[in-house]
Amino acid sequence: MRLPAARGPITAELFARLGGSPDRIGPLPDCPPGAVLDDDLQLALFACYELHYQGFDGVDDRWEWEPSLLRARAVLESRFEDALAQAVPRPQPVAPEHVRRALTALTVADEGPPMAQFLQRTAELEQFREFAVHRSIYQLKEGDPHTWAIPRLQGGPKAALVEIQADEYGGGRRERMHSELFRTTLRGLGLDDSYGAYLGRVPGITLAISNAMSLFGLHRRLRGALVGHLAALEMTSSLPNRRYAAGLRRLGGDDAAARFYDEHVQADAVHEQVAANDLCGGFAAAFPSLVNDILYGAACALTLERLWAEQVMDRWQCGASSLLEPDLADLVAGQ
């Protein structure tokens, strides 16, 4: 994966520096309000975080721990955290023993746009392709952001997270890794299955979904938000994935292409219980002062998903593409 084109003054300055040898980098340009949706800030933050994952071709790996870049990233993170705080009100505090009930209330109350129903019943093939392009940003690294929490947990919560993540990584079998299953889905849709292939095509809100996971995962102080975020994903996964599978088959996808979604229907029904009870319940009992962080992380996951779906659905309802470069012809691999 190479650095994509810059989207504003922040990424223009950042990418210009990352193309050279690691050296002191000064403050980056400021960003306007509304950082949750800001393309420039979200791409810059994503690029900073990606240095801790697979990195970029042509970018020196030593940038990962360059102190001046970490200071610049901290400013971007602060803007993002402030924007999240404005977009996601903190849930009401609850006692540790009630955290499962509170998580259930959050996920049941969140209705969001009918994205899954639309993809199941109405979407055209080009729209399902766009959906997969958006999802590829996270799902080709699925599991990795939440795995940062493993060394930060102990006892039962740690064991619970390892149980969930073991399934994400296919129980040690490459062909069963969820990221590999999604690559098969991309190929079945005629799309490029290489890591980060569509980074330059997706808007800021798509990047914000991944950035929130990395923000929570890379900061120990936010480990409560990270486990709550994971629980919200697991608790709202099974039914939508059943609908995605049905929609893909309706559009001519075969069982191999739909297997990623089929797998989540089964696995996440189990993960829901492990995440809510053993992971979050155990963590809340061990760290009562962080219970509200668990619920906040869950609320962030639900809110960002809703904002993303609203933006994508609004574009589709106007007859437009949800991607930054709308020509779908060159999305198809080999064209």
TrEMBL record:
Pfam families, sorted: Haem_oxygenas_2
Top-level taxon of origin: Bacteria
InterPro entries from the UniProt entry: Haem_Oase-like_multi-hlx
Protein name: Iron-containing redox enzyme family protein
Listed SMART domains: Haem_oxygenase_2
Organism annotation: Nonomuraea glycinis
